[in-house]
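sorry to bug you again but im stuck and you know this stuff better than me. below you get a single protein, a line of residues and a line of whole numbers that encode the local backbone shape. mainly i need to know what kind of three dimensional shape the backbone takes. anything you notice is useful, everything is just below:

***
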Amino acid sequence: MADKVPVFGKSLYDYMTDENKTKNEQGFEIPGDCTTAFERAFDDAAKGNNTLLTIPAGDYALYKPLCLPSGLFLDVHPHAEIAFEGFETDEKAENIRVRGGVWRLQGDAADVCAFEFSDAHGITLENAKIYCGRGAAVGLCGGNDIRIESCSFYGMPGTEDAASAGILLGGTLDDVSLEGIYSRGCDRLIEITANACLERFSAKNVTSDDCLYFLYGNHADIQNAVLHDISGCAHIDAVFLADSKLEKLEMRGLDLYNGFFVFERNEIGKVRLERFRRRYDLDKNAATKATMYISGQACAIHADIVSLDSILRTGKLCPDIKLNAARRSSPLIQPDTPFVYVLGVALTSENKYIMPSGSFDLFTMEKNASV
């Protein structure tokens, strides 16, 4: 967040000339091509002359990508709609805050971010509605102290070469938090790109109606990530992580339809999943999908509050692993079930583990831990 927010600022209209305005059917002047007006305003902010820029309600259009200057507070009316080609920052940009607005990324390219921040510090994006097409709503390529709060992302299916995304995470990121995020239409709500490193990352109250994946990562390094209160529908997998280093990953409060958990060939430190509730009724094929699929990674598994049916079906699907299970009384959250089970499994890189069905209260994976 910007360290200093000026008391007085300027409106975008202060930077407009007659050439930036057109007249509507009633004869009133309205914004037309606002590219030069935004350029003037951003240049003024870069010089430190005015770092608070307000955008009144109305429709605006920008016809080329623009660079957000350090120190800018862009305060946008909730009913201001901006058709634009994307915003980016210079490397090492800092203290930028964007609040409000309806942002519509133009074109259907799959490799474009509506908001792209590179090695930035002190970034806040809040209360924004972003229509990102086949691209990404927000792209973070390195940086720290980044907050994305109370935002909605609306996308379209991506291409064969690139999926659409809500949040695209790359480079080395530290102290990044998401809160109150809603997504519709984005293939991958949170995507961790190859060789990205998440040193500290958190996500809270994240919902999607129809993504393919909530969390997708391949060849990534997750040092410390906590996600909780995740809900909605993922048509393929809620979580897909492969060929990655998972030093510490925690997910709590998972209320999901259709897509569940896939871990393949990861280097495990500690993974902890809590309070998962599996729901079926959005997709008739969901009942055939496994709750959990693990392969190619040596680790010790512990699961708590697992049904006997789930354990027996795991035994049939994975005859080469030894299941250690014990019965205990059912907690109040499952009053109709007199008994539930705890489960322990030791896996090698040659094994696979499948939990074919059911919810669980706790599921952990740890390196070099005894079962």
The longest strand covers residues 165-184. The two ends are 45 Å apart (CA to CA).
